[in-house]
Automatic annotation (TrEMBL), chain A:
This is Simple sugar transport system ATP-binding protein. GO terms for molecular function: ATP binding; ATP hydrolysis activity. The keyword Transport applies. Signal peptide: none annotated.
TrEMBL record, chain B:
The keyword Disulfide bond does not apply. The keyword Nuclease does not apply. This is Simple sugar transport system permease protein. It is a multi-pass membrane protein. InterPro entries: ABC_transp_permease (IPR001851). GO terms for molecular function: transmembrane transporter activity.
């Protein structure tokens, strides 16, 4: 299939933004009827390449060929007209319009000078039927789950007779069943000769569905390979550009730190009605405590009590041997506790402020607004954390909104590290970011614990990640602590067994 | 059937219509002589210019924008019409000219908003000051309109159901019908809703966002120009202080009519009832006899509060329902 005349060929594409070379001499080919994985770290240039292809950005140089003919793609509208449609991760449809209208808007059938709503409804039902999706197409789009919305977006792409469909991280918010359903649809489209570009961070997905994989790193094309002839570990090393040894090394970074350290924080019978049942917890200095459990198992609720975001209605918290009351995050911060919440945007990352301003924000708050950090001190702190956790930014004054998702996550982390906490709580710090950054963050957590003696609570939905970096693991299920694992008990099988309700 | 009526779909609109009908009936019981066709028609006669401009405003608000200049445009157009008629120009030239002035002015503001990505609030605020100021350049005094053709149009009454309506009423109802057609049955109208729902998505879906936004402000300009004509017909004079604060009445009508200020949701038909409810309050205060006219403002204010909270409650109800379903 790779030998066939490519439907799309991009040659020597270059694109720069102020301070960043986003794409350098990138070539890309897409054949009809193939599913082509596009992989790379955050900031590798995947999105930029796609945006050039769909006319959102104009390339600085390079050429695009459609069916062998050179073409200039002027706008997303133009891209759609020539058969290139994109389904974005955050579904870009209009939530206030009906499902049917979302599929047809922009090319509504007109009858007697007015939009033919009946035809829209019928055809929307027909196309969704193809995906085995039986929903009320007159309902507003916002009524349905993200999975359904994604199907609707694909249906829209089909209706406007796409030859090329680009799926940008479509499975990020889907569960397994929904993902499988999406894959079925993708295979169906493939059999109809439609070419699909599939961008994802999930290795399993790539190996399950793609025919070829193109890997980008730092805006450069690394390789394009047949999926079947590319071993996983090689793919990862191509993506992050680190030696394989380095990845493996981290696995056994340190399992035995913190054993005899002093207890920093102790929770006794802490509970909040409706949020989390009573639990005991001990946190030692210099250890990483993993919280494992399914979404909604009570992990976030547990740490919210430790950070004063929620008030406990029974039990007590003891820090350094003294009982304390944590009534607000401010109290917690005073006891040198920091929490990095799950959602970057809710975490108060302010896109229109610079990296420096975002990093010093928490520190400035703890000092009070009237004791302003000097400009020089601010710069020094910002630079320190940019170097320490390897934030990819041209300088300290770059606006945070211009950074990639993974680097934004690092800025949040830097903000809390800047107050030099004794206890750092990380709620899903690696969600939705690429392997390279993930590895960076994991390594940093281990260094903070073993090197600085910081106590870290690490929440992650990826059990594998939890087992890799935690010295102790607390398993939660249905809003209760159900087990605490140490040493050799910390492995994926054991944790899954516990979550599934196995006896001790 | 009951379920269908009580369903949250279009609930805001249903409440507005119910509120109007119930209030009208209650007033009819309290005040003798209130219930008559003519009294009902008067609501339209006295508020046709508000209805015309509020329909344009509905489109602007549906995109998530706002236009503060409409009252000033009405004053300016009334001034231009009165002045040109005084100079002896034919009414049939002057009237379309008035509408065109509004349209051009709207188009300019739309272009500024779109090209320079400026907040509509600030652009139309500037427009509001500018154009009201310009009306005083023509004359600081009120100019009364004595043109015979114009007066004949103004005083022409169309008998209907034992009462009569003015040309303005017909004009406003035609605009209403056109507005409803535009909003619900044309690509332009649907793009307006899409922009209000999520402008960035609309752009990525390949819709003509920029063009539509400029057209929306142009349309609103045309509506306020036409409202200026209607206002001149109603007052038979041009004056720089005419229609002061009308932009706020217009926005209030749209919101009471069930359109979300954040855009993307609402009905042109609802705006009609937003206007009628405001008209009804005025009429009631007149019938009551002892209340001062500023009570209108108090009632409209209270209504607005109620409706904004109501819209929030309804949209919250929808999100909770949504969670149950997924």
């Amino acid at each position: 299939m790779a030998a066939a005349e490519p439907i799309i060929k991009m040659a020597k594409i270059e694109k720069s933004f102020p301070g960043v070379k986003a794409l350098q001499q990138v070539d890309f080919e897409l054949a009809a009827g193939e599913i082509h994985g596009l992989m790379g770290e955050n900031g590798a240039g995947k999105s930029t390449l796609i945006k050039v292809l769909t006319g959102v950005y104009k390339a600085d140089s390079g050429q695009i060929f459609l069916d062998g003919r050179p073409i200039r793609i002027k706008s997303p509208e133009h891209a759609q007209k020539i058969g290139i449609s994109t389904v974005y991760q955050e579904v870009n449809l209009c939530p206030n319009l009906s499902v049917a209208e979302n599929i047809f808007i922009g090319r509504e059938p007109i009858k007697n000078g007015r939009i033919d709503w009946k035809k829209i409804k019928n055809e929307a039902e027909t196309v969704l039927d193809k995906f085995d999706l039986k929903i009320d197409v007159d309902r507003k789009l916002s009524f349905y789950s993200v999975a359904v919305q994604q199907m609707v977006a694909i249906a829209r792409a089909l209706i406007i007779s796409a030859k090329v469909i680009i799926l940008d991280e479509p499975t990020a918010s889907l569960d397994t069943d929904e993902t499988n359903k999406l894959f079925e649809v993708m295979r169906q489209l493939k059999s109809e000769g439609i070419a699909i570009i599939y961008i994802t961070h999930f290795l399993n997905n790539v190996y399950e569905i793609t025919d070829r994989i193109t890997i980008l790193r730092n805006g450069e094309l690394i390789d394009t390979c047949l999926t079947e002839s590319l071993p996983r570990i090689e793919l990862i090393s191509k993506m992050i550009g680190k030696d394989l040894e380095q990845i493996k090394e981290m696995e056994n970074y340190s399992k035995n730190i913190g054993e005899n350290n002093k207890v920093l924080l102790k929770a006794e019978g802490l509970a909040s009605k409706g949020n989390i049942e009573a639990f005991d917890l001990e946190l030692k200095e210099g250890e990483v405590l993993g919280l494992a459990g399914l979404l909604g198992a009570g992990r976030t609720e547990m740490v919210e009590l430790l950070f004063g975001l929620n008030k406990a209605d029974q039990g007590r918290i003891i820090i350094d041997g003294k009982e304390v009351k944590l009534n607000s995050p401010k109290d917690a911060v005073d006891y040198k506790i920091a929490l990095c919440p799950e959602n970057r945007k809710e975490a108060g990352l302010i896109g229109n402020l610079s990296v420096r301003e975002n990093i010093i924000l928490a520190l400035q708050v703890t000092r009070g607004w009237f004791r302003k950090l000097s400009q020089a001190r601010q710069l020094e702190i910002a630079q320190k954390y940019i170097d320490l956790i390897n934030i990819k930014t041209p300088d300290t004054e770059q606006l945070v909104k211009n950074l990639s998702g993974g680097n934004q996550q690092k800025v949040v982390l830097a903000r809390w590290l800047a107050i030099n906490p004794d206890l750092l709580i990380l709620d899903e710090p690696t969600k939705g970011i690429d392997i390279g950054t993930k590895a960076d963050i994991q390594k940093l957590v281990l260094e903070l614990a073993s090197g600085e003696g910081m106590s870290v609570v690490f929440i992650s939905s990826e059990i594998e990640e939890v087992t890799r970096i935690s010295q102790r693991v607390v398993v939660l299920c249905d809003r209760a602590k159900i087990a605490e694992l140490t040493g050799s008990e910390i492995n994926q099988k054991e944790i899954m067994y516990r979550i599934a309700g196995g006896e001790a | 059937m009951i379920n269908k009526i009580l369903s949250t779909k279009n609930l805001s609109l249903k409440i507005t219509i119910t509120l109007f009908v119930v209030s009208f009936l209650i007033c009819s019981l309290i005040y003798p002589g209130f219930f008559s066709w003519q009294n009902f028609f008067n609501l339209f006669i006295d508020n046709s210019f508000l209805l015309i401009t509020a329909i344009g405003m509905t489109f602007v608000i549906l995109t998530g924008g706002i236009d503060l200049s409409v009252g000033s445009v009405i004053a300016f157009v009334s001034m231009v019409i009165a002045f040109l008629l005084q100079q002896g120009l034919n009414a049939f030239i002057v009237i379309p000219l008035g509408v065109m002035i509004g349209g051009c002015f709207g188009a300019i503001m739309g272009l500024i908003i779109q090209k320079f990505k400026v907040q509509p609030f600030i652009v139309t605020l500037a427009g509001m000051f500018l154009i009201r100021g310009l009306s005083f350049l023509i004359s600081v005094e009120s100019i009364s309109i004595k043109d015979p053709i114009f007066n004949r149009i103004a005083n022409y009454h169309i008998p209907i159901a034992g009462g009569a309506i003015s040309v303005n009423v017909v004009l406003s109802l035609v605009v209403l019908a056109l507005g409803m057609y535009l909003a619900h049955f044309t690509k332009f109208g649907r793009t307006v809703y899409a922009i209000g729902g999520d402008e960035e998505s609309a752009q990525l879906m390949g819709l003509k966002v920029g063009r539509t936004k400029v057209l929306v402000y142009t349309l609103n300009g045309l509506c306020s120009g036409l409202a200026g004509v209607a206002f001149s017909l109603y007052m038979l004079s041009g004056y720089g202080l005419h229609a002061e604060g009308l932009e706020m009445d217009s926005i209030a009508s749209v919101v009471i009519g069930g359109t979300l200020l954040t855009g993307g949701s609402g009905f042109v038909f609802g705006t009609l009832f937003g206007v009628l409810i405001q008209g009804l309050i005025q009429t009631v205060i007149m019938f009551q006899g002892t209340l001062s006219s500023w009570w209108t403002k108090i009632f409209v204010g209270i209504l607005l509060f109620v409706f904004i909270v109501l819209q929030k409650v309804i949209s919250n109800m929808k999100t909770t329902k949504n969670e149950f379903n997924n």
